[in-house]
Structure formats: structure tokens, C-alpha cells
Records
---
Amino acid sequence: MTTIIYNLFIINKSGGLIFYKDYGSVGRLDTNDSLRLASLWHSMHAISQQLSPTTGCGGIDILEADTFVLRCFQSLPGTKFFVVAEPGSQGLDALLKNIYDLYVDYVLKNPFYEVEMPIRCELFDLSLTQLILKDKAMLGSR
């Protein structure tokens, strides 16, 4: 099964969208829609942590619908990474962890990057595109 990633969002711990990338050709989001979706996800994630009957709940990790799957990874400092992909996509956890590794290597180690601010790093963007294409090719060959 080929995995198709539609969108990637990175949200800072305050709930601000600091990075958005559209990889799909279906359902493209404009700037306002991407900001709304990031804000909504941050709020739902925070509310689910507070309402959970289980202590230590980290919030919603996955949301599955008929037309998409949304998978989230939250780093220890509170930055959230989530992808919107086609239904039935496999390997999204590993993909998100690889995206986080790229974030650490190209964004956090960049001396010109201010933490919690929008990400504008060409090497990060290029590496993300290569990772998504490589992941898509590997999953497509299975």
C-alpha cells in the first residue's frame, strides 16, 4: 500500500503554527484553513489530556476518518508534529519521529533560529521533502 502524506503541521507549545507544508494534491488548504486546523488540533489535544480518566494521558495521538488519518507526535518540550495522510497509511509513527530528528538537526541546532517562532530553514524543508519522497517510495515497494 502506498502512503500519501497530504499535510505536515508543526505547532509550538503555545499552540501557534510554526510550520506547514502541503504534500497532497487533494484538499489543499489555504493559509487561514491551515491556521484554523492547527489551532483546533492543539485545543483538542489539550482538552483530551485534561478530560482523560487515565492519569498521565498525553492527549490524542490518532484521528481516523473515512477520507484521512491524522497522526500526532508530541515532543518532550511540547512541540506537536502531525501529518494528515490517506486512510490506512502505515508507518506514520516512524515518519513523525524522523521528522522530529530533522527538526532537531536543522532547526533547533541552527544558531539563527528563535525557539517557538515560524520555521524558515531551507535545509529543513529540503530534507523533509526528501524524507517524504523516500518514505513514499519505500512504502510503495512493499
---
Amino acid sequence: MCNQLLFGEAVKILKKQNATWLKVESLYDGYIGWVTHHLITIVDGVTALQPCQTLAPHFLNKVVYNNQSMHVPLGSSLRNFKNKKGDIAGIAYSFTGRPVDTTLVDNKVETLLQQAFLWLNAPYMWGGKTILGVDCSGFCQTVYKLVGARIARDAWQQATQGKLVRSLKTAKPGDLAFFDEKDKIVHVGILLGPNEIIHASGKVRIDKIDRSGIINTDTGERTHTLKLIRRFNY
């Protein structure tokens, strides 16, 4: 698995492989991968391209459709949602919780950090984007999504976005720090300040950071080499 699509996210179908597989491109971040056909419901292009700022607020959220319950993860898109009811791909659903409206988030840096802390100790899983398993860039992308900031999927892609921050001393909480190995970006995390970072490495954890890189708080071992820092508009 290289990535996950969350409930309500739209894709463009690029290719069909026999009766089972579809090659698709995420309309959220342009990521390309393969899914089985039963995971996709066909809609028109205008519907698929409609932005959605209403997101599921909890790690697991109970959505009801056809009098059946379905649990969808944090950051899922609640499309056409109003007065606890919505419609996605022509299917009516209800959700009784209070969704996240990213257009109404006031202090976005504070909210971003609050969301990040909730992920502590979530297990690492390559390609994951949920509390049940998440990788470093998936963690950053999903947390940023919850404050209305759209960033790319992989760490090396994220490292090409935003504004370059010249040094760790001038970095601010919420900036993304990137780490390399043999001149290739291999890791990313969210800075909490000039000395701490929250990132997914084995699990979502808080470690020390200096101008050379990350130092594991538990062992004192240097685990990642700092390459650059980026700041994003919310």
C-alpha cells in the first residue's frame, strides 16, 4: 500500500485493468495508485471537482446511510452536508456530530498543533493516513487538511512547496522540517518550537531537534539529518 483515500475524496479514473482494478488519480493531491472498482462510485466531473471544507472531526465517525452505520476516519470529506444530513455520489447520509469547517478555523497554528498532539503514539504504517496506522507525510498532510491547508502527499513533494525558512532559529511552530538521506528527502515532521518536533517514526512521537537533526528523546540517538524547513500558508 502506497497511500489511502479517505471517505468522500474524489478521484479521476485513468485506466481500467480487467474487471477488478482501476488506476486513479486523487483530485486532492494528484497522487496516483490502484483501487478495486467497488470502492468507487461514478459521478460527473463537476460534482467530483467541487471542493469540500466540511470534514469528519473524530478519529472514527459514525455515518448512517440506508439505516446502516459506517465508521469513517478523521479528515473524511462530508460532502453536501447541512443540518446533520448530506449527499455523496447520490447517496443520502446523516452524521450527528459537529464537523470541522475549515473556513471557520480561527487560530490555525494553535488548532494544527492541538490536532497533531491527538495523534501521539499512533502506530507507524507505510502509506497510512489514519490513527490505526500513519506514515510521516500522511500524518502531516491530514493534520494540515484539518485547518484547510492542502499539501502534497509524500515528504519529497511537500519539500518543494511552501516558503523556505532559513534556519531552525527562525522557524515557527507548525512549520514542516524535512530530513534527508544521501541527498534524498526521506522524512518530515511538524515543528513544535526550536527544540522539539512531532513526527511519525515507529509511532507518532515528540523528539528533540537541533540544527543537525532529530535526537530520540528516549535513547539519545540521532535518527534523522535535517535538510530544510518550509512554511505554508493556511
---
Amino acid sequence: MSPAQLSDDDLAKALTDLPEWTRQGDSITRTVEARSFLAGVELVRRVAAAAEAANHHPDIDIRWRRVTFTLSTHSAGGLTALDVALAHEIDRLHASE
């Protein structure tokens, strides 16, 4: 069973705690700038491990030091609490690098 989609109001409230994330249709996205290419790759590795543990996987685009994360729960056809939780974890991992 897929998790329930968030209502627009619930998503708006969740994004107040995720100021670096923006909604783009049925996804939320954030681009971070790492201090080096290797630091960006290491961040992706750490996010990948967290995503695997949560069984919820982001789309990731690496462009030199810029890493873009896009989250959506495809099985639910939109945004769910899984996306919000992973966004918080990505923020935590980025802040700790």
C-alpha cells in the first residue's frame, strides 16, 4: 500500500521547516553546492545510504560541485511524508559535511 499524498496545506506547512526546498509540480527539489566535486560525491553517497535504509530513493543530478535532489513518491503519484522525512535527512547530512 502506498503512503497517502500530502494535501497542499500539509505540504506548505512542511516546507516552512524546509526553506531550501521548492515545490515543482509533484516533486520537491533542492540544489546544494559542495566545497569540492569529491565532497559532493560523498554527500550523494551518504544520501544514497539513508535513502536505501528508508527504501525511498531521490533523483540526484551532479554537476561539478552542484548537487540537485528531487523527491517524489512515485507509487503514490505525488508528495508524501516520506519525501518530507528524506528532505530533512538530506538537509542534516548536508549541514554536517
